[in-house]
Design brief:
CATH architecture: 4-Layer Sandwich
Number of helices: 8
Radius of gyration: 21 Å
Largest sheet: 13 strands, mixed
Distance between the termini: 44 Å
Shape: globular
Length: 409
């Protein structure tokens, strides 16, 4: 039995995060006012294991084969959309979601896609009010002191020549006196961090500055972030800090590992790639990162490449795992002391043509099903010159976007 799916142009809209329909908000991918936001769930699926990317691709193709698509808009992000949130490790669960309704906006054009034979769903604007809730914070899997000790251990392993870089993550927990409203949280993140991608898939919510891969027709792009410094809020001081970051041997070393891993992963699929000689400094509201945009042109004469194939090749990058990858993964397993779940995994969307945008799930939290608690994550790249106290401060800076957004609910 074929299911109808329809895409139509929309008129002027409020901010995507303020849109409401008769179905509950389930997914989002928003940056600078553009993006996609989904309501309700048509179908969802869980994959895990070493074949999780190919299994996800097969499931998506099978679902598409059962849809009769009426797309009057066309272009990337229109028609049926799959939202994905993959785990960091293959042994844990990855989530796939096809929303019932998707509202999109790009370059001043807005559209709506819905599944079923009903008329176009009604859209309204939801003015969000501050919630009355109190958060209680506690240590996550390990305390701050214990995490610093693990950073020291990682530095020792690096100096002993076992590996060049490893990313160690930590978590903190918050419990709330009232349910945390996801749509309010997303609105706060969109407002405060417009240069990030604000995402939501199966209660994993955050604002990531790192784009793992964008595939648009034959052009592939990956934004690599590695090397971080905290902002002070004083413009003159921050400009000086940005210059310091751009010349920091420790941060440049960490960044070089991450860029190299991405460029090498993309090379087999591309007829040409472009890797800038030096990074730029990306200014976010609370931190600055060394950033490089790696681009390539997909080799069309080779076997057709889809997003899932590219994601598999890129994940995990040195920015979230380390170098060499296998050695870093072993060290993470031995000394990190927690389950990452879908933190630091690929998260984003893919359309019926195979185009899409997938980031790395950073600056995020996993909200409990009852919405009364949330687990936040942060990770730091550890190299031979790393200092445990400085790495702890960096992790606290990376936790700040979610902590701040939650504090203003």
């Amino acid at each position: 039995m074929s299911i109808r799916i329809t895409t139509e142009i929309l008129g002027e809209l409020p901010k995507l995060s303020e849109i409401s329909t008769s179905s509950a908000l389930t997914t989002s991918w928003i940056r600078g006012g553009d993006g996609l936001i989904g309501f309700g769930t048509y179908k969802s699926h869980v994959v895990r294991g070493p074949k999780r990317f190919s299994d996800a691709s097969q499931w998506w193709r099978n679902e598409l084969s059962q849809l009769t698509i009426h797309n009057n808009v066309h272009g990337s992000g229109t028609g049926p959309i799959l939202f994905t949130s993959f785990s960091f490790l293959e042994s844990e669960e990855s989530e796939l979601v096809i929303p019932e309704i998707v509202v999109g906006r790009k370059g001043g054009k807005s559209w709506i896609t819905w599944i079923g034979d009903s008329q176009q769903p009604n859209i309204s604007s939801r003015l969000l009010e501050e919630q009355s809730l109190t958060l209680s914070w506690s240590d996550g899997s390990v305390s701050e002191d214990e995490w610093k000790s693990r950073v020291s251990l990682a530095v020792e392993r690096i100096k002993n020549g076992e590996l060049e870089k490893v990313v160690l993550a930590r978590d903190i927990h918050a419990t709330s006196t009232a349910p945390i409203d996801l749509q309010t949280l997303i609105q706060r993140l969109e407002s405060e961090y417009p240069s990030t991608w604000v995402f939501l898939v199966e209660n994993l919510v955050g604002a990531t500055p790192e784009l793992l891969v964008r595939l648009s027709k034959s052009l592939v792009t990956s934004r690599v972030l590695a090397g971080t410094i905290r902002k002070t809020g004083d413009e003159a001081k921050d400009l000086t800090l940005a210059a310091t970051l751009a010349k920091s041997s420790k941060d440049l070393e960490e960044h070089e590992y991450a860029v190299r891993s991405v460029a090498e992963a993309l090379a087999p699929f591309c007829s040409s790639t472009n890797v800038p000689e030096s990074p730029f400094v990306l200014h976010l509201s609370n931190v600055m990162h060394l950033a490089t945009d790696v681009t390539g042109v997909v080799n069309e004469s080779a076997t057709p490449v889809d997003m899932f194939t590219v994601i598999k090749a890129l994940h995990p990058s040195a920015a979230v795992c380390g170098t060499p990858t296998d050695s870093a993964r072993e060290v993470i397993s031995e000394i990190e002391g927690m389950s990452r779940g879908r933190y630091a995994g690929p998260v984003g969307w893919i359309d019926a043509r195979g185009d899409g945008e997938v980031g790395i799930a950073l600056r995020c939290g996993q909200l409990a099903d009852n919405q009364l608690s949330i687990r936040l994550f942060a990770g730091c790249g550890i190299v031979a010159g790393s200092n445990p106290l400085e790495e702890l401060a960096e992790s606290q800076a990376k936790l700040l976007p979610m902590r701040t957004a939650l504090a203003t609910l």
